Amino acid sequence: MCGILGGINVTFGAEGAERLRHRGPDQQSFVVERINDDLTLSLGQTRLNIVDRHDIDLPVRVGKASILFNGEIYNWIELRQDLEGLGWTFHTHTDTEVALAAYLQWGHACLSRFNGMFALAIWDGERFFCARDRMGKKPLFYRCRGKTFEFASEVKAFGHVELVGNELFDLFEFCFNEHTVYQDVFMLRPGAYLFFDPRKGTLLTASYWDIPHQVEPEIRDEKVAIDRFIELLEDAVKLRMRADVPVALFLSGGLDSSLIAGLSGVKEAFTCQFDEFKTSINEEDYAKDLAGRLGITVHMVRPSKEEFLRDLPALGYHLEMPTGSFSVFPLFCLARAVREAGYKVVLSGEGSDELFCGYARNEFLLSEGRERNDAKVQNYKAMLGRYDGSDLERFCRMASRSRIEGASFMKAYLLHLWSDRKSMLENVSYVESRIFLQPLLQMGDRMTMAHSVEGRCPFLDYRMVELAFSLDDSLRYRDGTGKWIVQQAARKVLPKDSLLLQRNVKHGLPTPVNLWMQGRHSFDRKYWNAILTAECIKSLASNQS
Fold first, then answer.
1. Distance from chain centroid for Cα 347
2. Quick one: which H or E segment has residue 324?
3. End-to-end Cα spacing for the chain
4. How large is the angle between the packed helices 438-449 and 305-319, nearest 10 degrees?
């Protein structure tokens, strides 16, 4: 895991790399090379040495080509063997060198061979090639102005940036795809790449992957589906255990992290429990029960109001853009506890709710649908459509935090992602996975990297994603409850009497910020987003002073 930055005729220097030191405290490099009288090349990186813990030459080079790499390619060992069979030799034991060789061998088609989370930039002597992983786990920002092209893992590396209004952020309470709240600064979309040619002054972007849409599901058989789910998840976990350092786990009282616990063999886990939620959102009892059965040492993290007030400026500094989630603070505290215990890598269960329809808001939407084949429903379809609204309209009314008027604007942003050829569940899971997951991944990356910890998410292995969208709807949602296949897998993998297998309601990971700041029990995010936005603005101002 690293921080990367660089470009052509950049406006920052080595101080930009210093601002990314938290992403990679083990090594740091910033080199500047003159291309011609008009063009200067800058290549910067900070390194967290998880694979090959020795210092290596930065940037990694092969011939005239150089790579800056952030993240992990989990199948790098297999790729290295393939490349060695084609005549390549290697000087390090890193996935970074393998990624560069793969690009030089296969061009941008190498991305389809990578199983991992990454953001990379390759200078081949003539142009830049930049890319992000399929789901957007690792961030990459860029701006292109005149003869200047700059990129970085975090916006703060750019130095001077200007906060601007953004209608999309106001509506969704987060940014996604290429959008940011900073003037002229864009994100590279998940599953996309770009080429920048400094001599021609051209920048081209393209997508190399999207979640497959199965108009007709491929898998209907329950046993086949459950066995395939467990097989793939087990392999995804195994790949994400590859490291030259020990690996820990974020363990909640839910199915997703518990399944990872059962398949990974980790020895230590970290669970968050707010004392204010002890009687309403109790993760501790479920986590300790499972940990005891699996022989895992579980560390309880108990954040307080005093810690929150102390850490609030750090949250804004590292987050840079609010995500509309209460989970920012507990994730920050969990990652700090992981690092203080000596770990650099932690597994987490993100992605399962989006892929397998686990959110209560989606369960409510799916449970209220009318039987489409009912003769009376068909006869009055037009009238009911006016009353119910379309599936997309109903989803937007549920997802919007700006009431009905906000839902109509949200629909305009999501309309191109919604297909009448697919079921409500297919559409909902697709939009959740492609749009609403992005701020959660931003949050997970920033809060772990704030403490120089790499977070790995087995459920976001692209093969798990593709499996989810090849399943018949009934394998994801059944009898008013989502994540049916996840529940069935848990019953096969976890100890039979585990307390969590009897759990009926699983909450998220909220912070009692409204209770602390206003004295009321509420999960209204309006004031929370305003507080975080203010902190982001303050950190931006201090970064430029």
1. 13
2. none
3. 28
4. 110
Tokens matching residue 193: 């790449």
Structure confidence at residue 515 (pLDDT): 85
Amino acid at 392: L
Element (H, E) at 207: strand 202-207
Burial of residue 490, with CB atoms counted within 10 A of its CB: 0-12 exposed, 13-18 middle, 19 or more buried: buried
Interatomic CA distance for residues 26 and 38, integer angstroms: 34
**At 51, phi and psi to the nearest 5?**
-110, 120
Confidence of residue 338 (pLDDT cuts 50, 70, 90): very high
pLDDT, tens digit, 9 for 90 and up, residues 34-49: 999 999 999 999 999 9
Centre a 10 Å sphere on the Cβ of residue 3 and count the other Cβ atoms it contains: 30
User: Is the separation of the CB atoms in 351 and 470 below 8 Å?
Assistant: no
- What pLDDT is recorded for position 527? 77
**Residue 276 burial class via C-beta count within 10 angstroms: exposed 0-12, middle 13-18, buried 19 and up:** middle
Q: At 336, give phi and psi (nearest 5°).
A: -65, -40
Q: Between 14 and 528, name the one with better pLDDT.
A: 14
- For the chain, the C-alpha Rg in angstroms (whole number) is 23
Nearest-10 crossing angle of helices 95-106, 76-85: 50
3-state helix, strand, coil in the chain (%, to 5): 45, 20, 35
Do 184 and 25 touch, CB atoms closer than 8 A?
no
Unique residue bearing structure tokens 């109903």:
394
Task: Output the six-digit token pair for 388.
Answer: 């119910």
Each residue of 351-367: pLDDT tens digit?
999 999 999 888 888 88
For residue 296 the two structure tokens come to 């895992």
Task: List Cβ neighbours of 491 (8 Å cut-off, separation of 6 or more).
Answer: 501
| Nearest-angstrom CA–CA distance, 63 and 400 | 51
Helix axes 424-431, 360-367, angle to 10 degrees: 160
State the average pLDDT for the chain: 92
For residue 55, the one-letter residue type is: D
Portion of the chain with pLDDT greater than 90, in percent = 77
Paired sense of beta strands 60-62 and 481-482, if any: unpaired
- The helix (run of H) or strand (run of E) holding residue 529 is helix 526-544
Checking if the pLDDT of 467 tops 90, the result is yes
- Burial of 499 from C-beta contacts in 10 A (0-12 / 13-18 / 19+): middle
39 by Cβ neighbours in 10 Å (0-12 / 13-18 / 19+) ranks as middle
> What DSSP character marks residue 163?
B
Closest to 94 in 3D by CA, of 246, 243, 248: 243
Q: Residue 159's pLDDT is what?
A: 81
3-state SS, 453-484, equals CEEECHHHCHHHHHHHCCECHHHCEECCEECH
Q: What is the pTM of this model?
A: 0.94
Whether 217 shows a pLDDT value over 80: the answer reads no
